[in-house]
Structures are given as structure tokens and as C-alpha cells.
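pinging the channel bc i need a second pair of eyes. not urgent but kinda urgent?? the chain im working w is below, pasted from the shared doc
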Amino acid sequence: MKRSRAIAGSAVLAMTGLATLAGATTASAAPTATAAYNGACGSGYRVVNSVPVTGKGAVYLTYNATSGKNCVVTVRNSPGKPVYMYTYLTATDGSSDWISDSGQYTSYAGPVYLPAKGICVDWGGSIESVSVNVSGSNCGRMAAGVVTHH
């Protein structure tokens, strides 16, 4: 799938209506069709975690065992006119830069990559005003993290 970079957006997340779920690898959402992973991270990456962006799409965390890299992409349920989208990935322990991509996109934001073999990661994304963030997850395995929705 191709995406459109009409206007670069900022990496600012609105902090409204915060709900926290602890001990879940994937947050539950209303019964809505959720965007499928689109393969944007490339060959060798497999989905290891995901979280729905309620009513809008999903954020996917993938991992490539050969390279030891994680990749995150935020995917819309239905491509269309460009809307603000954001995706990010960083090491929970602060040992890496905050890697992100944002802008006005038609179908997805990202991919963003981080060498993360054996370390916990924070990751998430936004579609329009709906944001999700996962903290301290996938520490070299399928580990539980803290998921927040705004």
C-alpha cells in the first residue's frame, strides 16, 4: 500500500480521557473491523503485538529475529483522505532515541525501526484524535505491558 505525505504533522499527543489497562498484551475494543497488518515493515518481520486504535485502525509491533529489530506501523481501517497519523517506538529504559513518524497520511504511519533484541519497548500511535500507547512490553518475548488509550 502506498501512503501520501501531504503535510508533515507534529508529534504532539492530546492527553484527554485517559484509561489504563494493566497486564494485557492486546487491548480490547468495540466490535469493529480492525485494520490488518499491511507488511510495511518488510520481509522477515512478524507481528508480535498489536493494539486497536478504537474505531480507526490498529498499531502493530513487529520483530525480525534475524536483525534483532522491532518495527511499528499504525494502520487505518479504511484508507481515504489524508488524516493526522502518528507512530513511535523507543526503549523503555531510555537507552535509545524516540523514533517516530507523523503527518497527514491516507493509509498508514511508519514504519519506524529500533534495534531492540532483549530490551523492553514503549510503542504506540494515533489516528486523528485517538491515541494508544504501550509501555514496557515485549522484553525479548511476548510480555505484558501497560496500555493506555486517550
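so Residues 19-149 form one domain. and The longest strand covers residues 83-91. — does that match what u expected or am i reading it wrong
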